[in-house]
């Protein structure tokens, strides 16, 4: 059959009608601006619950929105209380030893870790929206804070200044976090992709574990740097400080803690085994040290911890010009890390129980929690994955479990501090190592490798940046790589050639669908990205290369290229540069004696094309609802062979 008959019979073969593209109704500039702001900053439409409500009811809903405790508090029951008490006591048994351990990881006095496990959970219970999130110090934020501050201030030579800077950093972290939530800028933390976070967390876990070699080997003089090379160099250059008693105790408790963790992983109903293991380790090791006077045989102990509740610390906030940039930079870094972990954990467990967690409200709650914490002798806190998992498995029902945990920590602070006098530092190191092992997600990394090789490279760069340079440099590299990846996709969007699936009006990527065939006389392209100023020049050049290559192929086959169809279904928006690009592209294609048409432009794109008078220049014959209709309609104007 001749080609002309083949193309003209397409409409009969697929049996479709031709429809006109509907233009969007005209909107004022103010209407468009309001719609754009609402979609960008208020996609959840928080005011929808107030529609049609009485004035009194609106006040109640407003209070419940800002104080989620008022949502579940009035309907609280004894059955819920029983579950929350059990889960609260369970996470307290984990929070107490972890709080002490993570404070040492941040180069802070151990008591600060307990303070940080008391006041912040009370604040979060009032303002937080997650039922499962158990808040307190976390390893990554502790590591970032301690390592960044230690670069300029020594925690051993000037402990008071270091403590002041830690509190000030916490305050700035809280202000940063609350501001993101208040201004509804939570999408900023989404710049940290999953691949970046997995690499960063794994690298941080390696560094955290290596840092614990100081406690596990009994070394006194240890490297200040966080990278793997100076740490391992310090380990082997200080072999004379190794203590076999410390190594033996550390190895035994490390095996005990890892074994308990494996039991809980293999049998989720035995979650309490891994939850109770850290506190059991602290109790057992303390008794052993006290009974055998092990502190006189090379076993380093915590020493005296002051009893009593959190003392006020607002007078310790250090705003001196010399260190202002340091605390602001550290506050933003720790704020991002802790927000990312806290919100991710909250959303994970909310999805398991089929309820929603408002990301912006969580930012405000976590930010306020840290601002209050900075004034009550606490350092950066957020939702902990390990404690939240224990809280969830223990059957928590509401945020009261955080209050129960805080009350348990309060009792410890008031009455049980003398019992920690002989707690060995080596056990705290073992607890940290066991806790951070879970941050190495090998399965997720393997999945990234299978799905997206570029993402895997990003993951590796973040990982090696942390372990070979520093934690903060690794985090900065991770963020930079995430932004670069976004820019790469924005500036170099994908264009594909489409072919028709035989016997239908469906047009798909010819590389993915081998059965898709060319339509004689047509070059059908699809742009799979919004068109901005950053990509308009590239797209114009890329499309013209498609045209030139297709013309060359047609010459070799003694065929003729007549129509260029640009599928706009994946172009969600475009700016003025994109509109100019289409205008120039149309002129270039017209000079070649070809007809250029658009198919399936979406609402916002159509609206902008209309305002730019570009639709009028294309005319009725240059704009189609689908690619199939464009091909059928244009086939009737086919001019045949050259």
Number of domains: 2
Number of DSSP-assigned strands: 8
Distance between the termini: 17 Å
Which descriptor suits the 3D outline? elongated
Structural class: mainly alpha
Instruction: Tell me roughly what share of residues is in helical segments.
Output: 55-70%
| Mean pLDDT across every amino acid position | 83
Strand order of the largest sheet: 4-3-5-6-7-8
Q: Mind summarizing the main beta sheet?
A: 6 strands, mixed
Which residues sit in consecutive blocks of at least 5 with pLDDT less than 50? Answer: 1-9
Radius of gyration, CA atoms, in whole angstroms: 31 Å
Q: Per DSSP, what share of the residues sits in E-state strands of 2 or more residues?
A: under 5%
Helix count from the secondary structure assignment: 28
Give the SSE map.
Elements: H1 3-8, H2 10-14, H3 29-41, H4 55-66, H5 69-72, H6 78-105, H7 110-115, H8 119-127, E1 135-136, H9 139-150, H10 159-182, H11 194-211, H12 213-217, H13 228-237, H14 244-266, H15 271-292, H16 321-352, H17 359-374, E2 382-383, H18 385-393, H19 400-416, H20 425-437, H21 442-451, H22 453-468, H23 471-491, E3 495-500, E4 507-509, E5 522-527, H24 533-556, E6 563-567, H25 576-591, E7 595-599, H26 603-611, H27 614-618, E8 623-624, H28 627-635
Parallel strand pairs: 5-6, 6-7, 7-8
Antiparallel strand pairs: 1-2, 3-4, 3-5
């Amino acid at each position: 059959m001749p080609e002309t008959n083949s193309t003209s019979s397409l409409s009969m073969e697929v049996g479709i009608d031709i429809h006109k593209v509907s233009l969007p109704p005209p909107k004022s500039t103010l209407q468009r601006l309001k719609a754009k702001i609402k979609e960008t900053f208020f996609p959840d439409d928080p005011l929808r619950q107030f529609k049609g409500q009485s004035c009194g009811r609106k006040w109640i809903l407003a209070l419940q929105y800002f104080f989620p405790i008022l949502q579940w508090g009035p309907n609280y029951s004894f059955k819920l209380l029983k579950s929350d008490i059990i889960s609260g006591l369970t996470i307290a048994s984990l929070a107490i030893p972890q709080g002490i351990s993570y404070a040492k990881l941040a180069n802070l006095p151990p008591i600060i870790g307990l303070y940080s496990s008391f006041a912040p959970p009370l604040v979060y219970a009032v303002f937080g929206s997650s039922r499962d999130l158990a808040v307190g110090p976390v390893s990554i934020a502790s590591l970032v804070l301690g390592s960044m501050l230690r670069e300029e201030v020594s925690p051993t030579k000037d402990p008071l200044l270091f403590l002041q800077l830690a509190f000030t950093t916490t305050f700035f972290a809280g202000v940063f976090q609350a501001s993101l939530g208040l201004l509804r800028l939570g999408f900023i933390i989404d710049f940290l992709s999953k691949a970046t976070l997995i690499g960063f967390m794994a690298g941080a876990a390696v560094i955290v574990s290596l840092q614990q070699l100081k406690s596990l080997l009994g070394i006194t003089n240890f490297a200040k740097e966080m990278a793997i090379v100076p740490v391992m160099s310090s380990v082997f250059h200080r072999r004379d400080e190794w203590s076999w008693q410390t190594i033996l105790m550390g190895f035994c408790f490390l095996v005990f803690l890892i074994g308990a963790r494996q039991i809980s992983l293999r049998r989720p109903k035995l979650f309490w085994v891994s939850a109770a293991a850290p506190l059991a380790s602290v109790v057992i090791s303390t008794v052993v040290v006290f009974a055998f006077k092990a502190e006189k045989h090379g076993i380093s102990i915590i020493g005296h911890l002051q009893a009593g509740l959190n003392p006020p610390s607002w007078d310790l906030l250090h705003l001196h010009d010399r260190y202002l940039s340091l605390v602001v930079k550290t506050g933003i870094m720790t704020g991002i890390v802790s927000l990312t972990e806290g919100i991710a954990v909250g959303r994970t467990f909310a999805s398991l129980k089929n309820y929603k967690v408002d990301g912006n409200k969580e930012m405000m709650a976590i930010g306020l929690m840290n601002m209050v914490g900075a004034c009550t002798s606490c350092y950066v806190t957020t939702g902990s994955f390990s404690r939240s998992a224990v809280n969830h498995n223990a059957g928590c029902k509401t945020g009261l479990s955080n209050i129960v945990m805080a009350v348990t920590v309060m009792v410890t602070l008031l009455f049980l501090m003398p019992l920690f006098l002989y707690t060995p530092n080596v056990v705290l190191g073992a607890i940290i190592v066991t806790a951070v092992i879970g941050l190495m997600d090998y399965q997720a990394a393997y999945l990234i490798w299978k799905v997206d090789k570029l993402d895997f490279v990003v993951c590796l760069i973040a990982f090696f940046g942390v372990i070979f340079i520093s934690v903060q440099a690794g985090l900065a590299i991770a963020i930079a790589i995430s932004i670069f990846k976004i820019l790469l996709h924005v500036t170099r969007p994908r264009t594909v050639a489409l072919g028709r699936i035989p016997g239908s009006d469906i047009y798909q990527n010819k590389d993915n669908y081998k059965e898709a065939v060319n339509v004689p006389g047509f070059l059908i392209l699809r742009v799979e990205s919004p068109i901005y100023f950053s990509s308009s020049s590239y797209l114009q050049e890329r499309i013209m290369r498609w045209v030139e290559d297709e013309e060359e192929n047609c010459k070799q086959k003694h065929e003729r290229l007549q129509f260029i169809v640009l599928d706009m279904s994946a172009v969600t928006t475009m700016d003025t540069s994109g509109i100019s690009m289409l205008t120039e592209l149309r002129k270039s294609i017209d000079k070649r004696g070809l007809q250029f048409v658009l198919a399936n432009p979406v609402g916002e794109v159509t609206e902008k094309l209309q305002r730019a008078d570009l639709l009028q220049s294309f005319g009725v014959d240059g704009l189609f609802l689908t690619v199939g209709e464009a091909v059928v309609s244009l086939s009737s104007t086919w001019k045949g062979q050259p």
